[in-house]
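The record is given unchanged here:
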Amino acid sequence: MIRSRLLAVALLPTLVFPPQFLLAQQKPDGAKSGGPLDGYSRAASDTERQWEEKFRALPVPENIRENMRRLSARPHHVGSPYDKDNAEWMLAKFREWGIDAQIENFYVLFPTPKERLVELIEPTKFTAKLQEPVLSQDPTSNQTAEQLPTYNAYSADGDVTGPLVYVNYGTREDYEELDRLGISVKGAVVIARYGGAWRGIKPKVAAEHGAVGCLIYSDPADDGYGVADSYPEGAGRPKDGVQRGGVNDTDFPGDPLTPGVGATKDAKRMDRKDSPIITKIPVLPISYADAIPLLAAIGGRVAPVAWRGQLPITYHVGPGTGPGAARVHMKMYSNWDIKELYDVIAKIPGSAEPDEWVIRGNHHDAWVNGASDPVSGISAELEEAHAFGQLLQQGWKPRRTIVFCAWDGEEPGTLGSTEWVETHLAELQKKAVMYLNSDGSGRGYLGMSGSHGLEHFINGVAADVTDPEKGISVLERARKRQIASGRGGDRNEVRNRPDLRIGALGDGSDYVSFQDFAGIPSLNLGFGGEDRGSQYHSIYDDFYWYTHYSDTDFAYGKALAQTAGTAVMRMADAELLPYNFANTADTISTYVDEVKKLLKSEQDEIAEKNKEIDEGVFEATSDPKNPMAAPKREEAPPYLNFAPLENGSATLTRSAREYQKAAKAAQVDGGAMLDAASIDQVNQLLIRTERAFFSDAGLPGRTWFKHQIYAPGAYTGYGVKTLPAVREAIEQRKWPVADTSAVTVGQILENESKAIDAAAEKLKSLETAEGQK
């Protein structure tokens, strides 16, 4: 553990600056000195470590537990009385801790159910309950008057009837399988199981294939007794449990009526019928108890093996034939109201660089009580702020301004954070140096995802936080898990690479607008992996469930507060922004290799498929009693010109190396010493580096998403696509778009290199000027 960490630290420079520009604060008594931190002089590094140790001793699990108990005591969805009450309570707590805070309001379209119906009308009669029952063991499950019904927000209104067809997870690949089976969903109601892709993709793809309605159910193989004993005996989703959720098209996150601009009170709103976000067909979520009679009624072919869940039925695809075929009638109508959001924004002003911001966020709204999602995360964030308030009383002052955000409206579609970013875009792009997000958190392993310029930074932070159950650092435990789950060369890299690779960010929480629309380096942190069960977006995601089956003693809530709070503190106090472009360049080079391999894989796959068609393989192996058509013949993919990507990646690697050399030359042994004004000149250039990855035109067909390295997939939703313009064009076999995008993204990499070069040259010139004095 120590060796890996020291090797990682050695990769980045340690800057030394005169004493008058160190942190304006006293050292806490009894603190230990540690090694130098990136972006700090040696003396400032010692001071920072001492304050960080002081901070990590402050979070109290019982405080986090009490935060959760209070915030999750009642349903608090967007527009509910307790949503506002929670915001006002948090506002008062920030002020109690000596932190200036305010509530910022936005006004967004948030539909709630007015009429819902799902009924089987042939071959037998059945009406779905569409309701989660009260459980005597669960004391808040009886708050029925305040609970949102089971529904999918931003479903189109509709009253439809049609044959029922089972489509597995409802992905594009599943519909290709249906084509080979000779089954059309045109005019049908489809039923898909949760999983495989984000829920909003299911009605989107269904509508593209002509379906008139969509039902989504939770199969116990993925989310129920196939995972854990059913609640309340265990942590798993019970037979009547339902996953609510938005199904808005994620091409435009945020308010459906004001895409790209803040939904302030006087904002100009488009007509709802023109919104690109609302689904094309009605959609409803159902429990597997409601799904069993529907699925059991479907006739026709038995589903492929990979499509079969764990319900006690034979899975058929449908639609069946004759009068015995399953037919379903469904209705979904909403109240389409404008609701008020309550974003709580609290600021600790910076002592030296007040116009540079480190932003920490987690949302506070929930579909119902939301103990796990999101209260486990916001409870930890509040304890971080509480601890910072205590440090302020002891003389600590952050160098940069720290902004704590408790977002509203994340659940329907990252509404509160997106509207705040869109409203304050110019200021954020000038001032924000990092956004750190968390959401739901449990017990187990630390998960780290984000901008790879922050990869080395967050590895260093995680190395300083102790896992509460294992006694090793949370970084080392995460590394051991990757070794255990990896294979071959992957294991070797995890063992030998100084920094543990972090994941890239797609969609699914409040980081999306910061990363993809504002170009702010972002991180997402959370613990999990040992909960073994979930009540995600159900009425049973509440304090009772969480304190019986998740982080029951809030030890990992404390660990989250320690990890996120240390990261915020370390970034806020750094003299030189501790971005690491070497890790960025290394990661992007792997992405370039991946898209090259992806094209080769597509070429080989199509060539083999076409060969097997010519050889009659599919015809010969098709069961005459259950025939399956051969796939459609495709043109061989062309060879694409990846040279712009390769050249851009190579240039980026050289620029990253030169920046590291320039920064290292600022060490005391090199003889250069920079004053605060000089450091600020470099930092101002560094702040712009993430936005150099932007294209003003956005991604092909998705103009809101500006970042050309990371984006949520158009057909995965939450799942990330890296080098998305190129990768998705290859996956969708849009070869001209892929070829053009390779040139565009190659230029983007060149632009990033120039931005890094500018920072390096400024650093070199300042060092030269200092040396000549």
About this structure: Residues 166 and 317 are 5 Å apart (CA to CA). Confidence is low (pLDDT under 50) at residues 1-33, 667-673. The first strand starts at residue 100 and ends at 122. DSSP finds 23 helices and 16 strands in the chain.
